Each structure stands twice: as structure tokens, then as C-alpha cells.
Amino acid sequence: MQTGHHASKRGSDLLNDPVLNKGTAFTEAERDALGLRGLLPPRIMTQDEQMLRILPAVRGKPTPLDQYIYLVGLHDRNVTLFYRLVMDHLEELMPVLYTPTVGQACQEFGRIFRRSRGLYVTADDAGRVRDVLANWPHDDVRMIVVTDGERILGLGDLGANGMGIPIGKLTLYTACAGVPPHQCLPITIDVGTDNTELRESHAYMGLRRPRLRGAAYDALLTEFVEAVQERFPGVCLQFEDFGNHNAFVLLEQWRDKVCCFNDDIQGTASVTLGGLLAAARLTGVPLHEMRLLFLGAGEAGIGIGDLVVQAMREAGIDEADARQRCWFVDSKGLVESSRTDLASHKQRYAHAHAPAESLLDAVQSIKPHALIGVSGTPQTFTPAVLQAMAAQHERPIIMALSNPTSKAECTAQQAYEGTDGRAIFASGSPFAPVTHKGRVHVPGQGNNAYIFPGVGLGVLVAQASRVTDEMFAAAARTLSGMVTADDLAMGRIYPSLSRIREVSRAIAIEVARIAFERGLAQVERPSDVAAAVAETMYEPVYHSLV
Ligand code: NAD
């Protein structure tokens, strides 16, 4: 494993380099050879001993946000120890480093800011984006997550404060899939914010002006993507938390030209498809025979629909038949062919059907096997809707994917109660197990973190030139294949989050294989792809510097 740093640093320069710093774990020999004697407390600790010191420090913090601040500080001091801690306690710390705490961290970004991380490209950099990228100190960047902060989680426009999201996502790339940290670069494109309260607050550190839109925005983004290709050839660019319109436009513009994807659209699609494939093992109805009804026709909903169509086609049915199996209800009612108000991404799902105003009407006439909530609107899967699902199918599939928990279309308890305990339920945010009529049901969590880290690692190992829907469909199949009979017996259609590293590795192998088979790889195929994946994975261990 390379660190990307040369061990030429000494003394306090070494202690101030978070990638090389080991803190109290520098050995006697290193302290002598590298001018460290006296600069550290005398006791030499192993990494395990350091962990015994810092774990209670994290757990002792009064709130998740305080834990977040502590962890950011640890990362700023000692990257290796940070990842040891996060990898060994991933289930516990994922909600701190990512949703929900990262949302709060973004909202309070100015207040908790200590040290800058990542790269900011702003509307004022039009014409000089290349110069900004040239300032990044590392050349070997392979994974970029970029946001413009317009639609941060369920929190809306947070402008430059959105930086917490690319940082958090890249942390998961490393923690879940071992993507080497020095190859990751978080970027925020600050084009202003329409969040006036935030813009006018004293703590806000972004451009204090309304969002740039239209041709000037498009030109800046084009300059950015082109400059990224020059500065970091072959890098994988992940678009994250862009507003709905820009997200679709950027993906269409670049997906066939550079190595990129949008996790809100494609990652969500893959994790949901994985859940549906696992659910099919419980219901006995294969995916290509299912009818699906989505509440919400945005980035998540349309993304899932498109990938489901791809998976159905791989199962042998033609595209038109596959699309006909996917139905959408948006805020105006059923998406159907007589509507004249549909954005282009919805039109491909506007089938001939009488208008239906309510979700209940749509459920009753379409009789879906699966009901998928991606509306961001809570309590929309009412008892009547759930009962209608249960009346039509022995094991109705109910996915309430809207985040955070307070936005879920229904709770786990409501899903089991409304279907007499027969629902196969999954959600976007975690729900505790539910006991209904003496039976314990374990809800699965359709967390994108099952998918994107493994996809990123696979792309990196093959140096894939594109990220394709075939890769996301394969990732979904791999994920569903890791759901055990025991998981299914409890009604759980996702593996335990504790297995996420194993899942990521398996997905990476499949994604890399596809890249090699499709001629998308830019390195020679290794004799053993699985071994190449394992070799690439970062391990947070200290290396001797003498
Ligand atoms: P989006 O803004 O692109 O789309 C939201 C869609 O919901 C729009 O089509 C809108 O018209 C529709 N809608 C809103 N209220 C509605 C209502 N009452 N009835 C019917 N339709 C309604 O947002 P998105 O990126 O697609 O995300 C939607 C939700 O999905 C969010 O809450 C997000 O948290 C969740 N999500 C979950 C996961 C996951 O669990 N893995 C991943 C991504 C997104």
C-alpha cells in the first residue's frame, strides 16, 4: 500500500502531516532517527493501545455532533488511527460520519469549522478552474465526489456548507471499500445559494449571492469536468446532491464521455434493485414479472425505474414491456399519458391509463407487487394504502426510502401492522426490529453505502473509462446474493451492515470484471481480479518510517 507521501519529513513537520503521523505510536528508533525525541509523551503505544484511549473519548462526547467534531479533529491529526477507529466501529460511527449527523454538521459548518479540507471551485473561478485544480497538492487522485450544495440530503440548499457531504462520502469509500484515502478528493462548486437566511448569517463562508443558473452555470460545470480530466486523467467523478434538474442534465451530458456517475440516481437505484431481487426470493415472483409503483418521480424514483428496466431486459423481456411494469405517482397524481405537465425524465413512464389522483386509487388499479416511497413526504403510505397492498398480494413489498426517519412514507411498525405482518419492509433510514403478533420482523436498510464504495473500488482497480448501468445492475445482484437464508427468514432483504466491507469487496470484483470484459478497463487484466481488488484495499496500519 502506498501512502502517496515520501518519508523525508522530520520532527514537527512529520507530526503535522496527518498521513504520516502516528502520534504516540512512533517507535524508539523512529523517534531517534526522525528528530522526534522529546516532541511526544514518553510512553510508546501500539495502535491497539491508542484505540483504547480514543474510543472512550469518542463515546464520552455528549452529542453526535460533538463526536463528529472529535472525529474530524482526529482525521486532521492522524488519518491512519482515524480509519482504524472508523473501520472497527463502522456500524456505530457511520451515522455520525454520514447521515443523519453529517446533515447537522453541514447546517452548522461555519460554527464547527476548524481546518479546510477538500477543494472549492467558485463561480468567480470561471476561466481559471484549471489553476484552482493545479493547487491540489496530490497528483494521484482517483476518486472525486463533487456537489454544488443545492439539495443536501433532505435539507435543501446549503450552498458551500455542502462540503460536509463529499467529505463524508469519501470517508465511506475508504472505510467500507478501502479506497486509499490519499486518492480521494472532495470538491464543492460554490455557485452561491438561494438560502437567504444562511447567506446572510455571520458564520457562512461561501459566496454571498444568489445561485448562478442557466448558461453561465452550465459553462462553469463544463469547464470543471474538462479541467478535472486534464488534471487527474481517468479519475472517477461522482456527482452528489445536485438539484433535481441539474443532476439529470449533468449525468446525461457526461455519462458516455467520462468516468462518472450520480449516486442519488444510480447508487440509490442499485441498492433498491438489490432489495427487490432479495424480496423476489421470498415472494417467488421474479423481478421481470413484478409491477412496481413509485411514490415520487425524482432522482431516486426515475433512477430506480431505469435500472429496474435494465435488469428486466437482462432477464429477457423487451424494453417497452419492462417500462410498462414501472408506474409512478408524483405530487400531481399518477404519471400517465394524458398529462401535459411531465418533465422529460418522467415521460418514458407515462403509460396509457385513466388519471388517478390519490396513491390509494393507483394502488387499487395497478395492483403493484412493490410500493416504493421516494417522495420525501412522510406518512403517505397510509393504513388504507397498506391494507390495499396486503389485499392484493400475500407478501407485499413495501419500501419507505425517504430520509431521514421523520420523512419515511411509513414506519416499520405501521408497515407490519397495516399488512397483518405480511409486508416485506425496507427503509432508507434504520428502524429497530418490530414484534407483531409474537413474531419478530427485522427491517432492512436500503443504504447506498452498500453500493457506491464497492463500485468505486472496482472502477479504480480496472481504471474503467465509464461507469455503466450494467455495473450497477451487477452490484445489485451481488448485494442480493449476500442476503442469507437467515436474513430472509427474519424478513430482511439486505445483509447486516456489519458485513459491508465484504459486500463492497464482492461488488468491486464484479464491477472490475465487467470493465475488463467490456473493454472499458485502461489497465491490463490481472490474472486474478479478486486478488487485485484485495491488494488495492487500504488497511489502516502504521508502516515503519526508518
Ligand atoms: P427529488 O426532489 O428529485 O424527487 C422527489 C419526487 O417526489 C418528485 O417527483 C416530487 O414530485 C415527488 N413528491 C413530493 N411529494 C410528493 C407527494 N406527496 N406525493 C407524491 N409525490 C411527491 O428527490 P430524490 O432525490 O428523488 O429523493 C426523494 C427521497 O428519496 C428523499 O427523501 C431521499 O431521502 C430519499 N432517498 C433515499 C435513498 C435511500 O434510502 N437509499 C437514496 C436516495 C434518496
Main traits of this protein?
single chain, 25 helices, 14 strands, 45% helix, five-stranded parallel beta sheet, 3 domains, Rossmann fold, binds nicotinamide-adenine-dinucleotide, Hemocyanin, N-terminal domain
Descriptive notes:
Strand 2, helix 10 and strand 3 (184-190) form a beta-alpha-beta unit. The chain folds into 3 domains: 11-97, Hemocyanin, N-terminal domain, CATH 1.20.1370.30; 115-258, Malic enzyme, N-terminal domain (Rossmann fold, 3-Layer(aba) Sandwich), CATH 3.40.50.10380; 266-449, Rossmann fold, CATH 3.40.50. The longest helix has 21 residues, at 263-283. The strands form 3 sheets. It has a 7-stranded mixed β-sheet, sandwiched between helices. A 5-stranded parallel β-sheet has the order 1-3-2-4-5, sandwiched between helices. The radius of gyration is 24 Å and the shape is globular. The chain is built from 25 helices and 14 strands. Helix 22 runs antiparallel to helix 24 (500-517). Helices cover 45% and strands 10% of the residues. By secondary structure, the protein is α/β, with parallel strands linked by helices. The protein starts with 10 loop residues before the first helix and ends in a 10-residue tail after the last helix. Nicotinamide-adenine-dinucleotide is lined by residues 154, 244, 264, 268, 271, 295-301, 329-331, 374-377, 380, 401-403, 407, 428, 446-448. The site of nicotinamide-adenine-dinucleotide (NAD) has 28 residues, from helix 14, helix 15 and strand 7.
